[in-house]
């Protein structure tokens, strides 16, 4: 039996679908309607022993063969203690259960920890909204590494929908930002010179994780990114302009601006909602810059080892935009604003 934390999340559902040949028990929090798993268990990853009864915990310790730890606070810009409680706390509980069960842990982290690994934590702006999140993910990786529990680590970049359909359970930050840009709201697009726009599709990430689980592949750290195969910022903007035109909106391409050169319109003079979006883009660009502009990638190994399919990111981006266009994209934007 495979225990999947965060089973009701976007990534969790996709992983469960890839593991459909196995028995998957999903640990969920609020949303317990998860048809992708064989059994859903309500719990709290930040609570001791996931907030489960002693009987339920003991049952998991007996039955669990592997743990996929997907549950995490992924929203950017929250206070550090929130990430510490949920992301580090949840990893500690996963480690405890893995020890009791004699099971490995497959941890889903983020490729953006590379900026910290490269020694740039102090170079990132103090108010960078991504910084506390990636600190918590790297700290979680280190907890797992120091625990002695057999494990593998997956470091995905920003996620979009399935490469074949564009679908995902909820819109992710890429889709939400894209919806805003496609309505002509972006006065400019902050991006450090040399940065590539690295995105990965849900099915690619899920196939990589499921492949490692089923092959009992342990000890590796996999970068689920496109690396040098990623699109440029100019190519991404071109896709967005084309998508807006398909929706009947003629917009001008948002000019690319390196934040280090200053902005044509200062952030404080931009309307509040657009200011918040620009700040996120600026901070993600800063993190990417300190990752080297091009993220490391394990995609060749993932394709060879687990049969992960090759995907053209520009085509997948278009499909994801089409899936989340119109009313669904607007609804997603409201959730991210909160």
Describe the structure.
The chain has 338 residues and is an alpha/beta fold. It has a single domain, classed as NAD(P)-binding Rossmann-like Domain (Rossmann fold, 3-Layer(aba) Sandwich). The protein has helices at 10-18, 54-63, 80-101, 114-117, 131-147, 173-182, 202-215, 233-246, 272-290, 299-306, 313-323, 327-337; strands spanning 2-5, 24-28, 39-42, 66-69, 105-108, 151-156, 158-160, 189-190, 196-197, 199-201, 221-224, 231-232, 256-257. It has a 7-stranded parallel β-sheet, sandwiched between helices. A two-stranded parallel ribbon has the order 7-10. Strands 8-13 form a two-stranded parallel ribbon.
Overview in brief:
The chain has 338 residues and is of the alpha/beta class.
- For the report, how would you describe the main beta sheet? 7 strands, parallel
Low-confidence spans: pLDDT under 50, at least 5 residues?
Answer: 329-338
- Total helix count? 12
| CATH H level, superfamily name | NAD(P)-binding Rossmann-like Domain
* Basic shape: globular
Total strand segments: 13
On the 0-100 scale, what is the average pLDDT? 94
User: Spatial order of the strands in the main sheet?
Assistant: 3-2-1-4-5-6-11
Radius of gyration: 20 Å
Distance between the termini: 36 Å
> Domains counted in the coordinates: how many?
1
Question: Could you name the CATH class?
Answer: Alpha Beta
Element pattern in H and E? EHEEHEHEHHEEHEEEHEEHEHHHH
The fraction of residues assigned to DSSP E strands is 5-15%
CATH topology: Rossmann fold
Residue share in helices? Answer: 40-55%
Structure classification: alpha/beta
CATH architecture annotation name: 3-Layer(aba) Sandwich
């Amino acid at each position: 039996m495979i225990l999947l934390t965060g089973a009701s999340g976007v990534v969790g559902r996709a992983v469960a679908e890839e593991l459909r040949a196995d028995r998957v028990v999903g640990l969920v929090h609020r949303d317990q309607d998860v048809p992708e798993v064989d059994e859903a268990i309500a719990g709290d990853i930040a609570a001791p022993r996931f907030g489960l009864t002693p009987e339920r915990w003991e049952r998991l310790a007996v039955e669990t063969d592997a743990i996929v730890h997907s549950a995490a606070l992924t929203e950017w810009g929250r206070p550090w203690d929130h990430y510490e409680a949920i992301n580090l706390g949840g990893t500690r509980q996963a480690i405890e259960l893995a020890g009791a069960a004699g099971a490995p842990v497959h941890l889903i982290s983020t490729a953006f920890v590379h900026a910290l690994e490269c020694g740039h934590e102090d170079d990132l702006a103090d108010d960078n909204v991504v910084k506390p999140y990636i600190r918590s993910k790297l700290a979680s990786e280190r907890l797992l590494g120091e625990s002695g529990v057999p494990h593998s680590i997956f470091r995905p970049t920003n996620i979009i929908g399935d490469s074949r359909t564009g679908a995902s359970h909820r819109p992710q930050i890429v889709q939400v930002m894209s919806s805003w840009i496609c309505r002509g709201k972006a006065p400019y697009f902050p991006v450090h010179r040399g940065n590539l726009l690295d995105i990965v599709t849900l099915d690619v990430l899920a196939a990589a994780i499921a492949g490692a689980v089923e092959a009992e592949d342990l000890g590796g750290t996999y970068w689920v990114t496109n690396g040098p195969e990623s699109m440029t910022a100019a190519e991404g903007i071109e896709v967005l302009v084309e998508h807006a035109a398909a929706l009947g909106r003629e917009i001008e391409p948002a000019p690319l601006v390196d934040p280090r050169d200053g902005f044509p319109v200062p952030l404080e003079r931009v309307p509040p909602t657009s200011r918040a979006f620009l700040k996120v883009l600026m901070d993600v660009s800063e993190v990417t810059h300190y990752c080297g502009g091009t993220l490391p990638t394990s995609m060749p190994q993932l394709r060879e080892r687990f049969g992960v399919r090759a995907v053209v990111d520009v085509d997948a981006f278009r499909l994801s935009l089409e899936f989340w266009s119109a009313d669904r994209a607007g609804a997603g934007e409201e959730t991210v604003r909160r």
